[in-house]
Amino acid sequence: MEACRQIGIAEQTLYRWRKEYGGMKVDQARRMKDLERENARLKKLVADLALDKAILQEASKLIF
């Protein structure tokens, strides 16, 4: 498509975006992106805390 070439994206990207965001208004799409970023941040935080917990559990086994 000409529009894809003009903005420098693949047609496949356009179709994926349409499928993901097609029925949304701009503010809804922005909110969804914000929530996806927040979700990724929270997942990383949970993973870090789980690792900290595992380290502390191993350390407590050595002490007791």
UniProtKB/TrEMBL annotation:
Coiled-coil annotated residue ranges, if any: 25-52
Source organism, top-level taxon: Bacteria
Entry keywords, A to Z: Coiled coil
Record has Transmembrane as a keyword: no
Entry GO MF terms: DNA binding; transposase activity
GO terms, biological process: DNA transposition
InterPro entries for this protein: Homeodomain-like_sf, Transposase_8, Transposase_8_domain
Name this polypeptide is given: Mobile element protein
